[in-house]
Amino acid sequence: MGGDLKTAPKGTAPAFLVRALRDPDGANLDRVQIVKGWLDAAGKTHEKVYDVAWSGSRKPDPKTGKLPPVGNTVNIAQATYTNAIGAPFLEAWWKDPAFNPAQRAFYYVRVLEIPTPRWTTYDAKVLGVKLPTDVPASIQERAYTSPIWYTPM
After folding, report:
1. What is the pTM (predicted TM-score) of this model?
2. Pairing with 116, which of 4, 35, 97, 131 sits 20 to 30 Å away (CA)?
3. Rounded to whole angstroms, how far apart are CA atoms 137 and 21?
4. The domain spanning residue 40 has which CATH number?
């Protein structure tokens, strides 16, 4: 994981083959994203998140490009969830659609699981106490790869 890319051959752009598998004892996967960051000619930083693979038959909103939520199977009172949504693995091939060979950039993959009970929800159930009101009862765990850096010569 991770790496360094040097000046791209003329007419090419970085492309990535991504495959993510859920933990055998964990939650199914919601989506895989590629996060791209770059430095423009004025020295300003930018970042864009691309959804490249997702579970179910959801479609990105045509106006915003945003993907609808995967759903939520968390039973807060019981501090449980089911893998009735999501997918055990996701895979995609993605090529940077806005690559500028003159700009420094980085890429990394982010994988999101379906919602699961937050640790405070498990504690409330086990200890028989009220849920805290200042944090959500469920969360979406994430995993990240090491970055791949693009440095033009």
Report:
1. 0.91
2. 35
3. 25
4. 2.60.40
Measured between alpha carbons, how far is residue 46 from residues 32, 35, 40, 68, 113 in Å?
A: 20, 11, 8, 24, 26
105-142: b (≥16 Cβ within 10 Å) or e: bbbbbbbbbbbbbbebbeebbeeeeebeeeeebbbbee
**pLDDT tens column, 35-85:** 999 999 899 999 999 999 999 999 999 999 899 999 999 999 999 999 999
Q: What is the DSSP letter of 128?
A: T
Place of tokens 């598998």: 21
Q: How many domains does the chain have?
A: 1
Instruction: Measure the CA angle with vertex 45, ends 97 and 37; round to 5°.
Output: 40
Specify the pairing of strand 148-150 against strand 3-5. Answer: parallel
In a domain, 80, yes or no: no
> Does residue 133 belong to any structural domain of this protein?
no
DSSP count for the chain of H helices, then E strands: 1, 10
Domain ranges, residue 60:
3-67+85-114+140-150
